[in-house]
Design brief:
Blueprint lengths: L7 E5 L3 H12 L3 E6 L22 E4 L5 H11 L3 H8 L1 E2 L4 E4 L1 H14 L3 E5 L10 E4 L7 H10 L5 E7 L3 E3 L9 E2 L10 E6 L1 H12 L21 H6 L16 E2 L4 E2 L2 E7 L6 E4 L8 H8 L10 E3 L3 E7 L1 H4 L12 E3 L9 H19 L12 H9 L28 H15 L10
Parallel strand pairs: 1-2, 1-7, 2-6, 7-18
Antiparallel strand pairs: 3-5, 4-5, 8-17, 9-15, 9-16, 10-11, 11-14, 12-13, 14-15
Length: 443
Protein backbone atom coordinates (compact mmCIF):
# COMPACT_ATOMS: atom_id res chain seq x y z
CA UNK A 1 0.00 0.00 0.00
CA UNK A 2 1.25 3.47 -0.90
CA UNK A 3 2.70 5.46 2.00
CA UNK A 4 1.30 9.00 1.73
CA UNK A 5 4.03 10.28 4.06
CA UNK A 6 6.71 9.60 1.48
CA UNK A 7 8.10 12.43 -0.68
CA UNK A 8 6.04 12.61 -3.88
CA UNK A 9 6.87 13.30 -7.53
CA UNK A 10 4.67 13.61 -10.62
CA UNK A 11 6.04 11.95 -13.77
CA UNK A 12 4.49 12.79 -17.14
CA UNK A 13 4.84 10.10 -19.79
CA UNK A 14 5.36 6.34 -19.58
CA UNK A 15 7.74 5.88 -22.48
CA UNK A 16 11.25 4.54 -22.01
CA UNK A 17 12.47 7.60 -20.10
CA UNK A 18 9.34 8.10 -18.01
CA UNK A 19 9.07 4.43 -17.08
CA UNK A 20 12.73 4.30 -16.07
CA UNK A 21 12.52 7.56 -14.12
CA UNK A 22 9.40 6.42 -12.27
CA UNK A 23 11.10 3.14 -11.42
CA UNK A 24 14.25 4.81 -10.11
CA UNK A 25 12.20 7.16 -7.94
CA UNK A 26 9.96 4.40 -6.60
CA UNK A 27 12.76 1.96 -5.80
CA UNK A 28 14.40 4.67 -3.72
CA UNK A 29 11.27 5.17 -1.62
CA UNK A 30 9.60 8.09 -3.42
CA UNK A 31 5.85 8.04 -4.15
CA UNK A 32 5.21 8.53 -7.87
CA UNK A 33 2.09 9.57 -9.74
CA UNK A 34 2.71 8.54 -13.36
CA UNK A 35 0.52 10.14 -16.03
CA UNK A 36 0.16 8.43 -19.42
CA UNK A 37 -2.35 9.56 -22.05
CA UNK A 38 -2.54 6.18 -23.80
CA UNK A 39 -4.84 4.41 -24.52
CA UNK A 40 -7.33 7.30 -24.39
CA UNK A 41 -5.21 9.39 -26.74
CA UNK A 42 -2.76 7.89 -29.22
CA UNK A 43 -0.17 9.44 -31.55
CA UNK A 44 0.18 8.41 -35.23
CA UNK A 45 3.30 6.37 -34.37
CA UNK A 46 2.01 4.49 -31.32
CA UNK A 47 0.10 1.24 -31.79
CA UNK A 48 -0.40 -0.18 -28.28
CA UNK A 49 -1.42 0.94 -24.80
CA UNK A 50 1.75 -0.49 -23.24
CA UNK A 51 4.50 1.49 -21.55
CA UNK A 52 7.99 1.81 -23.06
CA UNK A 53 6.61 1.09 -26.53
CA UNK A 54 9.35 0.73 -29.16
CA UNK A 55 8.54 2.63 -32.35
CA UNK A 56 11.42 2.83 -34.81
CA UNK A 57 13.02 -0.60 -34.38
CA UNK A 58 13.21 -3.44 -31.89
CA UNK A 59 17.00 -3.17 -31.62
CA UNK A 60 18.81 -1.58 -28.69
CA UNK A 61 22.00 -1.77 -30.78
CA UNK A 62 25.42 -3.18 -29.89
CA UNK A 63 25.82 -5.16 -26.68
CA UNK A 64 29.59 -5.22 -26.12
CA UNK A 65 31.24 -2.60 -23.91
CA UNK A 66 33.82 -1.74 -26.59
CA UNK A 67 30.89 0.04 -28.23
CA UNK A 68 29.61 3.18 -26.49
CA UNK A 69 25.96 2.09 -26.44
CA UNK A 70 27.01 -1.32 -25.12
CA UNK A 71 28.87 0.44 -22.31
CA UNK A 72 25.81 2.57 -21.60
CA UNK A 73 23.67 -0.56 -21.28
CA UNK A 74 26.13 -2.19 -18.90
CA UNK A 75 26.21 0.92 -16.69
CA UNK A 76 22.42 0.92 -16.63
CA UNK A 77 22.32 -2.74 -15.63
CA UNK A 78 24.61 -2.01 -12.71
CA UNK A 79 22.33 0.86 -11.68
CA UNK A 80 19.22 -1.32 -11.46
CA UNK A 81 17.63 -0.24 -14.73
CA UNK A 82 14.13 -1.59 -15.28
CA UNK A 83 14.43 -1.10 -19.04
CA UNK A 84 17.62 -3.15 -19.23
CA UNK A 85 16.29 -5.87 -16.94
CA UNK A 86 13.23 -6.38 -19.14
CA UNK A 87 15.21 -6.04 -22.37
CA UNK A 88 17.57 -8.81 -21.27
CA UNK A 89 14.65 -11.01 -20.24
CA UNK A 90 12.89 -10.57 -23.57
CA UNK A 91 15.84 -10.52 -25.96
CA UNK A 92 15.64 -12.14 -29.40
CA UNK A 93 18.69 -13.32 -31.38
CA UNK A 94 20.40 -10.45 -33.22
CA UNK A 95 24.08 -11.30 -33.56
CA UNK A 96 26.16 -8.87 -31.50
CA UNK A 97 23.20 -6.56 -30.89
CA UNK A 98 20.52 -6.57 -28.21
CA UNK A 99 17.10 -6.79 -29.85
CA UNK A 100 13.87 -7.54 -28.04
CA UNK A 101 10.41 -8.94 -28.60
CA UNK A 102 8.89 -5.48 -28.54
CA UNK A 103 5.45 -6.62 -27.35
CA UNK A 104 6.66 -8.87 -24.54
CA UNK A 105 9.18 -6.22 -23.49
CA UNK A 106 6.56 -3.47 -23.31
CA UNK A 107 4.15 -5.68 -21.40
CA UNK A 108 6.83 -6.62 -18.87
CA UNK A 109 7.71 -2.97 -18.24
CA UNK A 110 4.02 -2.10 -17.94
CA UNK A 111 3.38 -4.91 -15.45
CA UNK A 112 6.40 -3.95 -13.32
CA UNK A 113 5.38 -0.28 -13.19
CA UNK A 114 1.72 -0.96 -12.43
CA UNK A 115 2.54 -3.45 -9.69
CA UNK A 116 5.06 -1.30 -7.81
CA UNK A 117 3.51 -0.15 -4.50
CA UNK A 118 5.08 3.32 -4.77
CA UNK A 119 3.66 4.07 -8.23
CA UNK A 120 0.13 5.20 -9.05
CA UNK A 121 -0.71 5.24 -12.77
CA UNK A 122 -3.21 7.80 -14.06
CA UNK A 123 -4.46 7.25 -17.64
CA UNK A 124 -5.01 10.85 -18.56
CA UNK A 125 -3.50 13.46 -20.88
CA UNK A 126 -1.60 16.25 -19.16
CA UNK A 127 -2.12 19.49 -21.05
CA UNK A 128 -0.37 21.81 -18.59
CA UNK A 129 2.58 21.38 -16.27
CA UNK A 130 1.31 21.12 -12.67
CA UNK A 131 1.89 24.39 -10.81
CA UNK A 132 3.05 22.76 -7.57
CA UNK A 133 5.36 20.00 -6.48
CA UNK A 134 8.25 18.17 -8.11
CA UNK A 135 7.47 17.29 -11.72
CA UNK A 136 9.50 15.16 -14.14
CA UNK A 137 8.46 15.65 -17.78
CA UNK A 138 9.19 12.69 -20.03
CA UNK A 139 6.42 13.15 -22.55
CA UNK A 140 8.72 12.23 -25.39
CA UNK A 141 9.35 13.45 -28.93
CA UNK A 142 5.64 13.03 -29.68
CA UNK A 143 4.47 15.35 -26.91
CA UNK A 144 0.85 16.38 -27.43
CA UNK A 145 0.29 19.83 -28.89
CA UNK A 146 -1.31 21.25 -25.74
CA UNK A 147 1.52 20.24 -23.41
CA UNK A 148 4.16 21.25 -25.95
CA UNK A 149 2.58 24.70 -26.19
CA UNK A 150 2.53 25.02 -22.40
CA UNK A 151 6.22 24.10 -22.20
CA UNK A 152 7.07 26.60 -24.94
CA UNK A 153 5.09 29.35 -23.19
CA UNK A 154 6.75 28.61 -19.87
CA UNK A 155 10.22 29.02 -21.37
CA UNK A 156 9.68 31.65 -24.08
CA UNK A 157 13.38 32.47 -24.27
CA UNK A 158 14.15 28.89 -25.32
CA UNK A 159 13.91 27.65 -28.88
CA UNK A 160 11.85 24.62 -29.74
CA UNK A 161 13.59 22.51 -32.35
CA UNK A 162 12.07 19.82 -34.54
CA UNK A 163 13.27 16.94 -36.63
CA UNK A 164 11.54 14.05 -38.33
CA UNK A 165 11.95 10.41 -37.41
CA UNK A 166 11.05 7.44 -39.59
CA UNK A 167 9.80 3.93 -38.82
CA UNK A 168 10.77 0.79 -40.76
CA UNK A 169 8.20 -1.69 -42.14
CA UNK A 170 7.63 -5.14 -40.66
CA UNK A 171 7.02 -8.23 -42.82
CA UNK A 172 5.78 -11.71 -41.93
CA UNK A 173 8.39 -14.47 -42.09
CA UNK A 174 6.11 -16.85 -43.95
CA UNK A 175 5.85 -14.38 -46.84
CA UNK A 176 9.64 -14.28 -47.42
CA UNK A 177 10.89 -16.46 -50.29
CA UNK A 178 13.76 -18.34 -48.65
CA UNK A 179 14.73 -19.95 -51.95
CA UNK A 180 16.21 -16.54 -52.80
CA UNK A 181 17.08 -15.29 -49.30
CA UNK A 182 19.16 -16.96 -46.59
CA UNK A 183 19.84 -16.81 -42.87
CA UNK A 184 23.21 -15.43 -41.80
CA UNK A 185 25.08 -12.73 -39.92
CA UNK A 186 27.84 -10.56 -41.31
CA UNK A 187 31.18 -12.41 -41.36
CA UNK A 188 29.27 -15.37 -39.85
CA UNK A 189 29.26 -13.70 -36.44
CA UNK A 190 26.48 -14.54 -34.02
CA UNK A 191 23.95 -17.25 -34.73
CA UNK A 192 22.69 -16.48 -38.26
CA UNK A 193 20.06 -14.11 -36.92
CA UNK A 194 19.33 -12.10 -40.08
CA UNK A 195 17.47 -12.94 -43.27
CA UNK A 196 19.53 -11.68 -46.20
CA UNK A 197 17.95 -10.71 -49.53
CA UNK A 198 20.65 -10.38 -52.24
CA UNK A 199 20.54 -8.11 -55.29
CA UNK A 200 22.47 -8.24 -58.53
CA UNK A 201 23.67 -4.95 -59.99
CA UNK A 202 20.76 -4.95 -62.45
CA UNK A 203 18.22 -5.65 -59.68
CA UNK A 204 19.73 -2.92 -57.52
CA UNK A 205 19.67 -0.41 -60.39
CA UNK A 206 15.96 -1.00 -60.95
CA UNK A 207 15.20 -0.85 -57.22
CA UNK A 208 17.22 2.34 -56.69
CA UNK A 209 15.54 4.08 -59.63
CA UNK A 210 12.07 3.15 -58.35
CA UNK A 211 12.93 4.14 -54.77
CA UNK A 212 14.24 7.58 -55.71
CA UNK A 213 11.12 8.41 -57.72
CA UNK A 214 8.51 6.82 -55.46
CA UNK A 215 5.71 8.96 -54.09
CA UNK A 216 6.11 10.21 -50.54
CA UNK A 217 3.33 10.67 -48.02
CA UNK A 218 2.28 14.28 -47.53
CA UNK A 219 4.18 15.76 -44.63
CA UNK A 220 4.15 19.49 -43.97
CA UNK A 221 7.54 21.07 -43.38
CA UNK A 222 9.61 18.04 -44.34
CA UNK A 223 12.92 18.64 -46.05
CA UNK A 224 15.85 16.29 -46.54
CA UNK A 225 18.21 18.48 -44.55
CA UNK A 226 15.95 18.33 -41.49
CA UNK A 227 16.20 14.55 -41.21
CA UNK A 228 18.22 13.33 -38.26
CA UNK A 229 21.13 11.33 -39.66
CA UNK A 230 20.68 8.40 -37.24
CA UNK A 231 17.20 7.55 -38.52
CA UNK A 232 17.22 8.72 -42.15
CA UNK A 233 14.45 7.52 -44.49
CA UNK A 234 15.82 5.01 -46.97
CA UNK A 235 14.54 7.04 -49.95
CA UNK A 236 16.36 10.15 -48.69
CA UNK A 237 19.56 8.14 -48.38
CA UNK A 238 19.04 6.74 -51.88
CA UNK A 239 18.70 10.19 -53.40
CA UNK A 240 22.12 11.14 -52.07
CA UNK A 241 23.82 8.93 -54.63
CA UNK A 242 23.51 5.70 -56.63
CA UNK A 243 25.68 3.63 -54.32
CA UNK A 244 25.01 5.40 -51.01
CA UNK A 245 22.75 2.56 -49.86
CA UNK A 246 25.46 0.02 -50.72
CA UNK A 247 27.68 1.66 -48.10
CA UNK A 248 24.80 1.85 -45.62
CA UNK A 249 21.91 -0.51 -44.89
CA UNK A 250 22.38 -2.50 -48.14
CA UNK A 251 26.11 -3.07 -47.57
CA UNK A 252 26.97 -6.56 -48.93
CA UNK A 253 30.39 -6.88 -47.26
CA UNK A 254 30.78 -10.03 -45.15
CA UNK A 255 27.62 -11.65 -46.50
CA UNK A 256 28.37 -14.58 -48.81
CA UNK A 257 25.29 -15.94 -50.56
CA UNK A 258 25.25 -19.73 -50.00
CA UNK A 259 23.17 -20.11 -53.19
CA UNK A 260 26.00 -18.66 -55.29
CA UNK A 261 29.09 -18.72 -53.06
CA UNK A 262 29.64 -15.02 -53.76
CA UNK A 263 28.87 -11.62 -52.30
CA UNK A 264 25.94 -9.87 -53.96
CA UNK A 265 26.02 -6.29 -55.29
CA UNK A 266 23.69 -5.25 -52.46
CA UNK A 267 21.94 -7.06 -49.60
CA UNK A 268 18.77 -6.11 -47.73
CA UNK A 269 18.73 -7.52 -44.20
CA UNK A 270 15.68 -8.46 -42.13
CA UNK A 271 15.98 -8.79 -38.34
CA UNK A 272 13.70 -10.84 -36.10
CA UNK A 273 11.17 -8.55 -34.42
CA UNK A 274 9.51 -10.97 -32.01
CA UNK A 275 10.55 -14.03 -30.04
CA UNK A 276 8.50 -16.37 -32.22
CA UNK A 277 10.35 -15.28 -35.35
CA UNK A 278 7.06 -14.71 -37.18
CA UNK A 279 7.74 -11.01 -37.86
CA UNK A 280 10.88 -9.41 -39.30
CA UNK A 281 12.04 -5.77 -39.41
CA UNK A 282 13.50 -4.37 -42.63
CA UNK A 283 16.83 -3.11 -41.26
CA UNK A 284 17.58 0.50 -42.20
CA UNK A 285 14.32 0.89 -44.14
CA UNK A 286 12.79 3.75 -42.19
CA UNK A 287 10.58 5.49 -44.70
CA UNK A 288 7.81 7.96 -45.34
CA UNK A 289 6.75 6.65 -48.75
CA UNK A 290 3.03 6.15 -49.24
CA UNK A 291 1.84 2.67 -48.32
CA UNK A 292 1.05 1.62 -51.92
CA UNK A 293 4.53 2.77 -52.97
CA UNK A 294 6.17 0.85 -50.14
CA UNK A 295 4.34 -2.26 -51.29
CA UNK A 296 5.35 -1.69 -54.93
CA UNK A 297 8.99 -0.71 -54.42
CA UNK A 298 9.95 -3.00 -51.56
CA UNK A 299 8.47 -6.02 -53.35
CA UNK A 300 11.15 -5.46 -56.01
CA UNK A 301 13.66 -6.85 -53.47
CA UNK A 302 14.48 -10.50 -54.26
CA UNK A 303 12.76 -12.71 -51.69
CA UNK A 304 10.14 -10.06 -50.88
CA UNK A 305 8.11 -10.27 -54.12
CA UNK A 306 5.13 -11.53 -52.13
CA UNK A 307 5.95 -9.86 -48.82
CA UNK A 308 3.11 -9.42 -46.37
CA UNK A 309 3.57 -6.07 -44.62
CA UNK A 310 2.49 -6.43 -41.00
CA UNK A 311 3.23 -2.73 -40.53
CA UNK A 312 4.15 -0.10 -43.08
CA UNK A 313 6.77 2.55 -42.42
CA UNK A 314 5.49 5.88 -41.15
CA UNK A 315 6.91 9.34 -40.42
CA UNK A 316 6.39 11.26 -37.20
CA UNK A 317 7.64 14.54 -35.80
CA UNK A 318 10.13 14.62 -32.99
CA UNK A 319 10.46 17.66 -30.75
CA UNK A 320 13.36 18.58 -28.52
CA UNK A 321 14.32 21.59 -26.42
CA UNK A 322 17.44 23.72 -26.35
CA UNK A 323 18.71 21.84 -23.30
CA UNK A 324 22.11 23.56 -22.87
CA UNK A 325 20.32 26.83 -22.22
CA UNK A 326 17.59 25.24 -20.08
CA UNK A 327 18.89 22.25 -18.11
CA UNK A 328 21.77 21.36 -15.80
CA UNK A 329 23.60 18.03 -15.69
CA UNK A 330 20.79 16.52 -13.61
CA UNK A 331 18.24 17.28 -16.38
CA UNK A 332 16.82 19.84 -13.95
CA UNK A 333 15.42 23.16 -15.17
CA UNK A 334 17.85 25.83 -14.01
CA UNK A 335 15.24 28.61 -13.85
CA UNK A 336 12.63 26.44 -12.11
CA UNK A 337 14.39 23.68 -10.12
CA UNK A 338 11.21 21.79 -9.21
CA UNK A 339 10.94 20.78 -12.88
CA UNK A 340 13.02 18.04 -14.48
CA UNK A 341 13.02 16.74 -18.06
CA UNK A 342 14.07 13.33 -19.39
CA UNK A 343 14.10 11.43 -22.65
CA UNK A 344 14.38 12.48 -26.27
CA UNK A 345 12.92 15.91 -25.55
CA UNK A 346 16.27 16.73 -23.95
CA UNK A 347 18.26 15.91 -27.08
CA UNK A 348 19.47 12.43 -26.22
CA UNK A 349 18.79 10.28 -29.28
CA UNK A 350 17.96 6.57 -29.22
CA UNK A 351 16.08 4.07 -27.10
CA UNK A 352 18.92 3.32 -24.70
CA UNK A 353 19.99 6.95 -24.38
CA UNK A 354 16.41 7.98 -23.62
CA UNK A 355 16.09 5.37 -20.89
CA UNK A 356 19.51 6.33 -19.51
CA UNK A 357 18.43 9.95 -19.18
CA UNK A 358 15.35 8.77 -17.27
CA UNK A 359 17.57 6.72 -15.00
CA UNK A 360 19.85 9.64 -14.14
CA UNK A 361 17.03 12.18 -13.88
CA UNK A 362 14.93 9.90 -11.67
CA UNK A 363 17.79 8.81 -9.43
CA UNK A 364 19.08 12.37 -8.92
CA UNK A 365 15.57 13.71 -8.29
CA UNK A 366 15.02 11.01 -5.68
CA UNK A 367 18.20 12.09 -3.92
CA UNK A 368 17.03 15.70 -3.91
CA UNK A 369 13.57 15.08 -2.49
CA UNK A 370 15.02 12.72 0.13
CA UNK A 371 17.50 15.39 1.25
CA UNK A 372 20.55 13.41 0.10
CA UNK A 373 23.63 14.60 -1.77
CA UNK A 374 23.72 14.18 -5.57
CA UNK A 375 25.03 11.00 -7.15
CA UNK A 376 27.01 13.07 -9.65
CA UNK A 377 27.64 10.63 -12.50
CA UNK A 378 31.08 11.65 -13.79
CA UNK A 379 31.52 12.48 -17.46
CA UNK A 380 33.89 9.52 -17.73
CA UNK A 381 30.79 7.30 -17.60
CA UNK A 382 28.49 7.00 -20.60
CA UNK A 383 25.48 8.01 -18.48
CA UNK A 384 27.31 11.07 -17.20
CA UNK A 385 28.72 11.98 -20.60
CA UNK A 386 25.22 12.26 -22.04
CA UNK A 387 24.06 14.52 -19.22
CA UNK A 388 27.12 16.72 -19.65
CA UNK A 389 26.51 16.90 -23.40
CA UNK A 390 22.92 18.12 -23.10
CA UNK A 391 23.92 20.70 -20.47
CA UNK A 392 27.08 21.96 -22.20
CA UNK A 393 26.51 25.69 -22.68
CA UNK A 394 29.43 25.95 -25.11
CA UNK A 395 27.45 23.95 -27.70
CA UNK A 396 26.03 26.54 -30.08
CA UNK A 397 24.19 24.46 -32.70
CA UNK A 398 22.61 21.91 -30.37
CA UNK A 399 21.53 18.70 -32.11
CA UNK A 400 20.24 15.34 -30.83
CA UNK A 401 23.09 12.98 -29.98
CA UNK A 402 23.53 9.24 -29.69
CA UNK A 403 26.02 8.13 -27.07
CA UNK A 404 29.54 7.79 -28.46
CA UNK A 405 33.08 7.71 -27.16
CA UNK A 406 33.67 11.16 -28.66
CA UNK A 407 31.66 12.81 -25.85
CA UNK A 408 33.60 10.92 -23.16
CA UNK A 409 36.92 12.50 -22.04
CA UNK A 410 39.98 10.84 -23.60
CA UNK A 411 42.26 8.58 -21.56
CA UNK A 412 45.22 10.92 -21.72
CA UNK A 413 47.58 8.16 -22.83
CA UNK A 414 48.05 5.99 -25.90
CA UNK A 415 46.71 2.46 -26.04
CA UNK A 416 48.36 -0.01 -28.38
CA UNK A 417 46.31 -2.31 -30.55
CA UNK A 418 43.92 0.15 -32.13
CA UNK A 419 40.48 1.56 -31.51
CA UNK A 420 38.98 -1.57 -29.97
CA UNK A 421 41.60 -1.72 -27.23
CA UNK A 422 41.30 2.00 -26.57
CA UNK A 423 37.53 1.68 -26.24
CA UNK A 424 37.97 -1.27 -23.90
CA UNK A 425 40.15 0.93 -21.67
CA UNK A 426 37.55 3.71 -21.77
CA UNK A 427 34.86 1.19 -20.79
CA UNK A 428 36.97 -0.17 -17.95
CA UNK A 429 37.55 3.33 -16.61
CA UNK A 430 33.84 4.17 -16.91
CA UNK A 431 32.67 1.11 -14.99
CA UNK A 432 35.22 1.74 -12.26
CA UNK A 433 34.06 5.38 -12.02
CA UNK A 434 30.38 4.48 -11.69
CA UNK A 435 29.31 5.99 -8.33
CA UNK A 436 28.39 3.56 -5.57
CA UNK A 437 25.32 5.66 -4.76
CA UNK A 438 23.94 4.92 -8.24
CA UNK A 439 23.96 1.20 -7.50
CA UNK A 440 21.85 1.34 -4.34
CA UNK A 441 19.53 -1.54 -3.56
CA UNK A 442 15.77 -1.09 -3.45
CA UNK A 443 14.19 0.38 -0.34
Amino acid sequence: MRNENRPAVTVIGAGLAGSEAAWQLARRGVSVTLYEMKPHKMTPAHKSAGFAELICSNSLRANNVENAVGLLKEEMRRCGSLIMEMADKHAVPAGGALAVDRYAFSQAVTDAIRSHPNITVVEEEVTRIPEEGQVLIASGPLTSDALAEDIANRFPQQNYLHFFDAVAPLVSFESVDMSKAWFGSRYNKGTADYINCPMTMEEYDAFWEALCHAKEATLHGFEDQSVFEGCMPVEVMGRRGHDTLCYGPLKPVGLVNPHTGKEAYAVVQLRKDNADGSIYNMVGFQTHLTWPEQRRVFRMIPGLENAEFVRYGVMHRNTYIDSPRLLNRYYQVIAEPRLTFAGQMTGVEGYVESAASGLLAGAELARRVLGQSPIDFPKETAIGALSHYISNTTVKDFQPMNVNFGIIPPLGYRVRGGKRFKNAELAKRALEALPEAAQQTDQ
